[in-house]
Amino acid sequence: NNIACLFDLDGVLVDTAVYHYQAWKALANSLGFDFTKAQNEQLKGVNRMRSLQLILEWGGVQKTAEEQEALATVKNDNYVGMISKMTAAEVLPGSVELLEALRAAGIKIALGSASKNSGLILERTNLAHLFDAIVDGNHVTTSKPDPEVFIKGAELLDTDPSRCIVFEDAQAGVQAAIAGKMKVVGIGEPENLTGADVVVKDLSAITVEEIKALIN
Ligand code: B16
Ligand code: MG
């Protein structure tokens, strides 16, 4: 009667959202336009190519598939330069404590991230050893809100989706968890997390007992 926890990375365990924003903003500016913070919210949890397509739509700019690949590479090179300097100090409050408490309680943990850079981030922030399985943008073909990333995590942890709890900061991620028939703990502001079973400000605000109680 095991349960499992599936963690999003960006915005839940670490604050890489600020680096994504800076790198996308620099790219948009180089193309002669800008986008708002509210628009940036829509990029959270959404994969790299889909994010680029949304930004190009906002700027009213059309690019060929080949040009889009090149632009995504420019953004990613800039972003990787930023995250290469990350340290464990950039892990969000409560993350390490909760992951360790879950492990101590015998609860399995997987990563479920849209990012293709999760390996570098987990290594830089010293979180990698806390996971039983990693599923990221390198292992899936569809982007959140499709549940693929979480379904794969549940499979790797040998746990039925109905006994999995997803931790997400993005609306697309909450939708992915619901589509996967899993419970969802939203991290952040309730208005950005419609459908979550519970919303907390960060991982310091929830306990192993409260998590277990989400599964009946
Ligand atoms: P990359 P998550 C997501 O990470 C980010 O929220 C999203 O903004 C980003 O576009 C996506 O990863 C892809 O990242 O360009 O590094 O492959 O929240 O699913 O952990
Ligand atoms: Mg996220």
From TrEMBL:
<feature type="binding site">
    <location>
        <position position="10"/>
    </location>
    <ligand>
        <name>Mg(2+)</name>
    </ligand>
</feature>
<dbReference type="Pfam" id="PF00702">
    <property type="entry name" value="Hydrolase"/>
</dbReference>
<feature type="binding site">
    <location>
        <position position="168"/>
    </location>
    <ligand>
        <name>Mg(2+)</name>
    </ligand>
</feature>
<feature type="binding site">
    <location>
        <position position="169"/>
    </location>
    <ligand>
        <name>Mg(2+)</name>
    </ligand>
</feature>
<dbReference type="InterPro" id="IPR006439">
    <property type="entry name" value="HAD-SF_hydro_IA"/>
</dbReference>
<feature type="active site" description="Proton donor/acceptor">
    <location>
        <position position="10"/>
    </location>
</feature>
<protein>
    <submittedName>
        <fullName>Beta-phosphoglucomutase</fullName>
    </submittedName>
</protein>
<dbReference type="InterPro" id="IPR051806">
    <property type="entry name" value="HAD-like_SPP"/>
</dbReference>
<feature type="binding site">
    <location>
        <begin position="113"/>
        <end position="117"/>
    </location>
    <ligand>
        <name>substrate</name>
    </ligand>
</feature>
<dbReference type="InterPro" id="IPR036412">
    <property type="entry name" value="HAD-like_sf"/>
</dbReference>
<dbReference type="InterPro" id="IPR023198">
    <property type="entry name" value="PGP-like_dom2"/>
</dbReference>
<dbReference type="GO" id="GO:0050308">
    <property type="term" value="F:sugar-phosphatase activity"/>
</dbReference>
<feature type="site" description="Important for catalytic activity and assists the phosphoryl transfer reaction to Asp8 by balancing charge and orienting the reacting groups">
    <location>
        <position position="144"/>
    </location>
</feature>
<feature type="binding site">
    <location>
        <begin position="8"/>
        <end position="10"/>
    </location>
    <ligand>
        <name>substrate</name>
    </ligand>
</feature>
<dbReference type="GO" id="GO:0005975">
    <property type="term" value="P:carbohydrate metabolic process"/>
</dbReference>
<dbReference type="InterPro" id="IPR010972">
    <property type="entry name" value="Beta-PGM"/>
</dbReference>
<dbReference type="GO" id="GO:0000287">
    <property type="term" value="F:magnesium ion binding"/>
</dbReference>
<feature type="binding site">
    <location>
        <position position="144"/>
    </location>
    <ligand>
        <name>substrate</name>
    </ligand>
</feature>
<feature type="binding site">
    <location>
        <position position="8"/>
    </location>
    <ligand>
        <name>Mg(2+)</name>
    </ligand>
</feature>
<dbReference type="GO" id="GO:0008801">
    <property type="term" value="F:beta-phosphoglucomutase activity"/>
</dbReference>
<comment type="similarity">
    <text>Belongs to the HAD-like hydrolase superfamily. CbbY/CbbZ/Gph/YieH family.</text>
</comment>
<keyword id="KW-0479">Metal-binding</keyword>
<feature type="binding site">
    <location>
        <position position="75"/>
    </location>
    <ligand>
        <name>substrate</name>
    </ligand>
</feature>
<feature type="binding site">
    <location>
        <begin position="43"/>
        <end position="48"/>
    </location>
    <ligand>
        <name>substrate</name>
    </ligand>
</feature>
<dbReference type="InterPro" id="IPR023214">
    <property type="entry name" value="HAD_sf"/>
</dbReference>
<feature type="binding site">
    <location>
        <position position="51"/>
    </location>
    <ligand>
        <name>substrate</name>
    </ligand>
</feature>
<dbReference type="InterPro" id="IPR010976">
    <property type="entry name" value="B-phosphoglucomutase_hydrolase"/>
</dbReference>
<feature type="active site" description="Nucleophile">
    <location>
        <position position="8"/>
    </location>
</feature>
<feature type="site" description="Important for catalytic activity and assists the phosphoryl transfer reaction to Asp8 by balancing charge and orienting the reacting groups">
    <location>
        <position position="113"/>
    </location>
</feature>
<keyword id="KW-0460">Magnesium</keyword>
<feature type="binding site">
    <location>
        <position position="24"/>
    </location>
    <ligand>
        <name>substrate</name>
    </ligand>
</feature>
